[in-house]
Amino acid sequence: MKGKGISTRRQRIRYVVCDWLTSAVAFLLFNIYRYYAVALHTGNSLGGFLSSQKLVLEQIFVPVGMLGIYWLSGYYNRPFDKSRLQELVTTFFSAALNSLLIFLIFLIDDQTLHRAVSYEMLAVLFMLLLGCTYIGRVGITHSAIARLKDRRWAFNTIIVGNSRMARQTAFNLSKTNSRLGYNIIGFVDIPGEKPITDDAPVFQLDKLAEICRSLKIDQLIISPETYDEERVLQLLFRLFKLDIPIKIAPDTMSYVTSGIYLQDIYGEPFVDLTSPRCSESANNVKRLFDVVLSVIALVVLSPLLAVLAILVRRSSPGPIIYSQERIGYRQRPFDIYKFRSMRQDAESDGPRLSSEADTRITPLGRIMRKYRLDELPQFWNVLKGDMSLVGPRPEREFFIRQIVRKAPYYTLVHQVRPGITSWGMVKYGYASTIEQMVERTRFDLIYLSNMSTLVDFKIMIYTVKTILTGRGV
Fold this sequence. Notes:
Layout: H1 8-39, H2 46-50, H3 53-72, H4 84-107, H5 115-149, E1 155-160, H6 164-175, E2 182-188, E3 202-203, H7 208-215, E4 219-222, H8 229-239, E5 246-248, E6 271-272, H9 280-300, H10 302-315, E7 321-327, E8 333-339, H11 363-370, H12 378-384, E9 388-390, H13 397-406, E10 419-421, H14 423-427, H15 434-449, H16 453-468
Parallel strand pairs: 1-2, 1-4, 2-3, 4-5, 9-10
Antiparallel strand pairs: 5-6, 7-8
C-alpha cells in the first residue's frame, strides 16, 4: 500500500508548536519551584506570585524567545532528516543555552539569591527545559517514524535512471529497514543508457520539471548505470533548477560524494547534492549574521551610498543602479544590484566579460571597481535572501553554460547562496576569461568543503584588506 505524501512544512509547524508549549510548561514549573525556593518568605501566595505583572510578561515572552534559539540550532531545517542521537544532542545544547540566557537576563541581578541557590536554580531550569522539550520532540519524532515505517507516510521519489542499477536501487529502498519511507513514483531515462522496458512509469528528462510539480515529488535519487563523474555533474546541472533535494549513493569518492553525511544509518546511505557540507546550525547562524551585518552596513554606509549615487548620476548618462539577472541558490535567477560602472550601451553587442583595460568602464567606475564600491548595493540582495555576505560569486547563465562545459563540477556552487565576496575573489579577483572563471571556481569548491563562521570572517577580513589597499581589480 502506497503511503500519503509528506508535508515538511506541517511537520516543522508541529515541532515549533510543541517546543513553544513544552517551553512554556517548563518555565511555569520553574517559576513554581522558584516561588518555593526564594519567594515563599515574602508572604505572597503562589497564585499571587505567578500572576504578578513581571511573571506574566516573562511567561508570555520567554518561551517565544526560546524558539529563536531552537531555530538557530537548525532543529527545524530538516524535520525528517535527523537521528535520535542528533535530536538529543541538539536539544541538550539548546536547553543549556536557553537556561544560561534566562539566568543572565532575569536572575543574576537578584540580590536575595545566594551563590549556591543560584547554581541550583540554573540546574533545575536546565533539567526542566531539557526534559520537557525532549519528551515533546521524541513524541512527535516517534509518531513520524512509525508512520514512515508502516508506509502510512512516504516521500514521493523519482529515480533518475532507468537501467538495471536503477531498478535495484528501487528494490533496495522498498525493502530497507529504514525510518525514511520511499514511495517510488517512477524512473527517468538518462541519455546514453540502455533503458529497461516494463510496466513501471518512465519519464523523459526534458519533462521532469512538469512531472515533479504535478505529482508533488519530494526528492530525486540519481542512480545511473555506471558512475561517470562528468555525466553525473552534467545531469545535476539540469536537475538543480527543480529546487527539490537531489540524492545519490556514494559509490565513488569525488567532487560529488565527498563529505558524506549519514542521516539514516539503518537505511540506504545517500548524499544530498543540494545541501552544503556544514551543519544546519551553521547555516542559520550564517543567515543571521548576513541579515544583521547587512542592516548595519546599509545604515552606516548610507551617507557614502548617497554620495556615490550623486557621483554616478553626474559622471555619465544612464541609471544610477545597474541590475542584471544572475543565477543563485539552486539555480534560482535573481536581479543583482550594483552602482553602474560602465557606459549605458556597454553590452549592446551581447554579454562580454570585463577586463582591467576595458574601455567600457567609466573613469568613476574604474575607481569604484578598484575599491569594490560598486558592489555596495548588494547588501540589499543579502537582506532579501538572494545572496550571502560570503559565497561563490553569482554568474550569468550565458557564462555558466560555457563554464560547465569546461568544468562540470561548477554546478556544485549552487548548493549555497552566492556571496558579495568569496575566497575565489580574495585569492583570484575578477576574471576576464572563461578559463580564469574556471580557475577561480576551484577556490569556491574548497570553500564549500570548509564552510564555517570562522572561515567566513577570515574571508571578510581579507576582503576589507583588499578594499583598503585598492586591489579590487
